[in-house]
């Protein structure tokens, strides 16, 4: 109920420093074939309890000591076991990252474990790029390239980019509901980028020759899929829907490409390249798999924690994809941020007002929602608080409590949080130096120049085979420059 203070724009910057110290995640204890199933499981149980106890001892009372509170994190050993299995059977780990806040979705401990301990290849997929400007995406790419050299980067979106998002430091809301195609997997952007990354990491596997080129080419032509490939109408997979659908594996057996993996398979299968998708809940792992498959093979939902079991899907005879349940890694990042990043089910948030305050301190929420101050006579001295924002929004939307017919602030708060996680209120974070330095502008200019030069030399040797390059290139360049100018003006 206390009025809040709007923070400087740099409060939206977030880098690796804010994620320090990073907390390790539980690893599978070593085991041998001499041990029976019960012994292995007991050992895992004990190691997990010891790990939990250790982090609670170290960070559990942090808030009372005045330092940062331990975030929410996955408490269920079964879910960690699934992660272990996916890491064990995958040749390439695809970490799916929601581009609106890449740092919170990037568990440093996992990066170090995969690249240094397991010595496996790791691809970071910036997902939901339709919700940020091209310049924000560009800046994050540069930041990640610099900070995490062993991570290969790809970009992806289930939906086309929104032109209105040319400057996402000034545009904070998609006021109108964006019309999205029902079969969105046809308009996905970036499947080629993801597959190209998987090709570039060069997985060397004796006797397995993947035709990456042919695979990538498949996504070149936007020809409609054959009847065989499309999903029957009325299927239960289209999300943004009933949050009650919790059985994510329902109906999956109908698809022939899915195999169960027995527990014996603890190293990548020698006949296939396995691409394992991991990441926080709700970042879009299952949607990415559907887009690659060009049909609905796994269930998706706007409610985090939808996928409950990992499953493999064959992309071609020697490449298979592995979807996994989203899992929250422990950190010292604020719980409000976790909720806003979509990894916690909104319906279960008991006290949503501090999350609203966290958001309102960073973006002009009352303006975005076009709220009117309740006390118009005294509008000049009026100061917004999270609670008043929620009450005003409840009035605007006609949310009233059943008994006393008072504005239902709780329902309003939930609705606002849902708008934020769905991406209709745009809360996106930026890498350090985004607002107060010209670092990223300079890098962008350099890149545009380089592209221009290579375009010029291409034009000289004009081979006019197809015009896709011309059109695409021109649009990207113009958008890029526009984003740049808007930013410099600010
Ligand atoms: N705007 C936008 N939304 C997306 C994109 N990809 C996925 N989503 C939405 O994000 C939500 C979560 O997608 P899922 O594919 O179920 O996410 P997941 O990572 O499999 O989630 P869990 O199974 O809970 O771990 C859904 O509401 C999707 O519609 C994207 O590229 N852009
Ligand atoms: Mg999923």
UniProtKB/TrEMBL annotation:
| Region of interest: Disordered | 230-249, 450-478
- Cite the record's Acidic residues compositional bias ranges: 457-468
Q: Which UniProt keywords apply?
A: GTP-binding, Hydrolase, Nucleotide-binding, Phosphoprotein
Write down the SUPFAM superfamilies for this protein, in alphabetical order: P-loop containing nucleoside triphosphate hydrolases (SSF52540)
Per UniProt, residues of the CP-type G domain are: 80-330
Report the Pfam families cross-referenced here: MMR_HSR1 (PF01926)
Entry-linked Gene3D superfamilies: P-loop containing nucleotide triphosphate hydrolases
Please give the Gene Ontology molecular function terms for this protein: GTP binding; GTPase activity
PANTHER family listed in its UniProt record? GUANINE NUCLEOTIDE-BINDING PROTEIN-LIKE 1 (PTHR45709:SF3), LARGE SUBUNIT GTPASE 1 HOMOLOG-RELATED (PTHR45709)
* Function of the molecule: Possible regulatory or functional link with the histocompatibility cluster.
What is this protein called in UniProt?
Guanine nucleotide-binding protein-like 1
The source organism is Absidia repens
Kindly list the organism's lineage.
Answer: Eukaryota, Fungi, Fungi incertae sedis, Mucoromycota, Mucoromycotina
């Amino acid at each position: 109920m206390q009025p809040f203070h709007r923070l400087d724009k740099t409060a939206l910057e977030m880098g690796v420093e804010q994620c320090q110290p990073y907390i390790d995640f539980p690893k599978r204890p070593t085991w041998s074939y001499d041990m029976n199933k019960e012994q292995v499981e007991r050992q895992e149980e004990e190691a997990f309890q010891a790990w939990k106890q250790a982090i609670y001892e170290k960070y559990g009372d942090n808030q009372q000591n005045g330092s940062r509170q331990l975030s929410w994190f996955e408490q269920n050993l079964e879910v960690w076991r699934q992660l272990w299995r996916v890491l064990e059977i995958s040749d390439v780990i695809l970490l799916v990252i929601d581009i609106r806040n890449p740092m919170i979705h990037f568990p440093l401990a996992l990066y170090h474990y995969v690249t240094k301990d397991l010595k496996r290849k790791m691809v970071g997929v910036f997902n939901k790029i339709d919700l940020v400007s091209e310049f924000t995406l560009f800046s994050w790419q540069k930041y990640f390239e610099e900070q995490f050299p062993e991570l290969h980067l790809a970009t992806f979106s289930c939906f086309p980019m929104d032109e209105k998002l040319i400057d996402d430091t000034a545009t904070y809301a998609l006021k109108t509901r964006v019309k999205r195609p029902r079969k969105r997997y046809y308009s996905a952007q970036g499947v080629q980028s993801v597959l190209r990354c998987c090709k570039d990491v060069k997985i060397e596997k004796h006797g397995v020759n993947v035709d990456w080129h042919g695979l990538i080419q498949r996504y070149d032509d936007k020809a409609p899929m054959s009847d065989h490939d499309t999903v029957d109408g009325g299927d239960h997979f289209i999300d943004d829907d009933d949050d009650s659908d919790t059985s994510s594996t329902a109906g999956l057996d109908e698809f022939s490409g899915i195999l169960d993996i027995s527990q014996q398979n603890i190293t990548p299968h020698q006949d296939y390249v396995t691409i394992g998708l991991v990441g926080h809940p709700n970042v879009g792992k299952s949607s990415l798999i559907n887009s690659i498959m060009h049909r609905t093979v796994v269930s998706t939902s706007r409610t985090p924690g939808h996928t409950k079991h990992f499953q493999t899907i064959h992309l071609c005879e020697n490449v298979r994809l592995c979807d996994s349940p989203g899992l929250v890694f422990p950190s010292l990042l604020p719980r409000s941020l976790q909720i806003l990043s979509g990894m916690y089910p909104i319906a279960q948030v008991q006290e949503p007002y501090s999350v609203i305050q966290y958001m309102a301190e960073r973006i002009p929420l009352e303006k975005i929602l076009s709220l009117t101050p309740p006390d118009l006579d005294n509008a000049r001295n009026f100061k917004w608080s999270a609670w008043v924002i929620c009450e005003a929004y409840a009035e605007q939307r006609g949310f009233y409590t059943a008994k006393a017919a008072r504005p239902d602030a709780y329902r309003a708060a939930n609705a606002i949080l849902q708008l934020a996680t769905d991406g209709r209120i745009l809360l996106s974070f930026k890498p350090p130096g985004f607002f107060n330095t010209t670092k990223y502008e300079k890098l962008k200019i350099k890149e545009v120049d380089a592209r221009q030069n290579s375009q010029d030399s291409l034009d000289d040797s004009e081979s006019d085979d197809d015009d896709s390059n011309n059109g695409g290139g021109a649009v990207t360049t113009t958008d890029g420059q526009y984003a740049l100018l808007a930013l410099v003006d600010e």
